[in-house]
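Writing this down once: the sequence line spells out the residues, with the fold written below as integer tokens. This is how one looks:
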Amino acid sequence: MLEADETSEDERPVHVTGRLALRLPRQRDAAALAIAVGNPRVAMSLFDVPYPYAHADAEGWIERARVPSRSPGTTLVAFRHCDAALVGAGFHRPSDAWPDGFELSFWVAEPFWGRGFGTEIAHAVIDDAFERGGAERLWCAIRVTSGPARRVAEKCGFQFRDTGLVRSLATRGTVPVERFVLERRVWTSLKAWGREASRLGRGPESAGVEGQTSDAA
């Protein structure tokens, strides 16, 4: 395990939002991750995790996320400021399926559904991909049955591109998905729009994607 090699640098959040601190995962997070992702309603919405999802699966996921790589990409876990509860996670990485693009994935633990945390996590991971990861476009595949995730993607500026099938470890088969894309130029415009709205004293509802949350995820 990597616990002995984890340094105080891991304690520092990579991103801080209104309610969350997002940082690199640590082995001590494995128990909370196993509970959250072990929920079938979470596992079945993801494509690259098995079900049942055990403590050892969480440990392996953390170890892979922490291995230094020549390729850009980041995995972040999100904890609530008020009580350090694990709320969810997200990652971005170069895509093997879509040319010249990165793929984005995020999830929220079921106790926190319907409170806007999905949008908060997605915003932070998207910003990381464009600001630090050097992405020019982000792709996101969402199961057709996941209306909340679709609404989060749309609130973050993603645009529908097409439909398809994706292999799912949890279901041991393929599942139908909708594919969405977010270009850097769109992200840049939305960020600028949000900053201008904030400067003028307008509320988040007038700030485009920037600052919005959703009751959907």
Observations:
- DSSP finds six helices and eight strands in the chain.
